What does this fold into?
Amino acid sequence: MQISKLLQPCTSWDQALKPQLKQQGQLKQQWSKGASPPSIHALLAVASDQLAEQLDAAHGSEVTDLGIFRAHAAKYEREFFEDMSALGVRCPDVLTRVVEFMPEVVGYVQRIVDNGMAYESHGSVYFDTVKFREAGHVYGKCKPSSVGNATLASESEANFETSEKRSQQDFALWKAAKPGEPSWESPWGKGRPGWHIECSAMASKVIGAKMDIHSGGEDLKFPHHDNELAQAEAFFHQDGCRQWVNYFLHSGHLEIEGLKMSKSLKNFITIREALQQFSARQLRLMFLMAPWNKTVSYGETMRAEMRAKEQAIKNFFQNVAVALREGEAQQAGTAAKWGADELVLSAAVQEAQVKVHEALTDNINTAGALDALSGLIKATNLYLAGKQQAAAA
It folds into this structure.
């Protein structure tokens, strides 16, 4: 079913209200005065979440066009890369989309079945955690204490406690098709990938049987990353794989004024909203000043601190640029003998290089690296101030 048909009952409202009435308060005011119902665009601006839930409940099972699902994902993919560009984050070397890797995903699941560590049940395929252990593997490497926690495990899988499984710790690799869900052909009938399998399949295709560094939020340790590991080790079992990833970097969460960012707390901040309060450099400094595996606090206090740090860096580069221009004009391109001040500054540069390297090789201590650079900025500013005083004397 096409999305235009789902919205058809509301399209007659489009000429009923002027497009500029987009805020909820304005809509209520106009409606209370007896005005015509709001336009579809104005209505979606204030009630899109509620309408989406109602439309999905009423007509979701009728959607069969895979293009609708892809268009939905493409919208957020586009916005994500726009946000990354605004932050100054480089593009990845490889971009993987699960819809483009469906044959690889099906083949990945089939090989795990062939290796005896997965089984088909009612059109779905489940990972067999018992057989996985019996084959000499360890399940739950990232967060062993959470293995068996049905509450955590069920967050990644609808109907987690189904009777289709042999063990309650087993998880879905392939789910049988349901009305209203995207589906693809497979040896087990039409269905879709489980949440975890797509990551293992795509990464294995691009990187292979060994990954050095894997990153993600700390909330992904279990079940997502533990299941990723299990799937990959089962897939590469015949190749002797017992450790697919060497190192995991699980990043901390973002807090808003001391509280965890959450839609339920209504303190959810998007990157675009953050960039209205912070510059891209300020945001990058904020994250670099905190340990990568700890919580970062976002708020007005942090904004003031990062604004000051950014200004200090800007001033440093401006002062250095001026000094270089003046030096080139005075020296006419010839090198000058270093005095005591130049030797002190050179030592500060070398010390900063050593400290930055030591910090980054010590658990990626970006805050320590920035501290070293701050020390170099201070030493350089003292050197430049001394030269200005000497010239003025």
In short: The beta strands are 118-121, 124-127, 171-176, 191-193, 211-217, 245-251, 254-256, 259-260, 296-298. Confidence is low (pLDDT under 50) at residues 1-24.
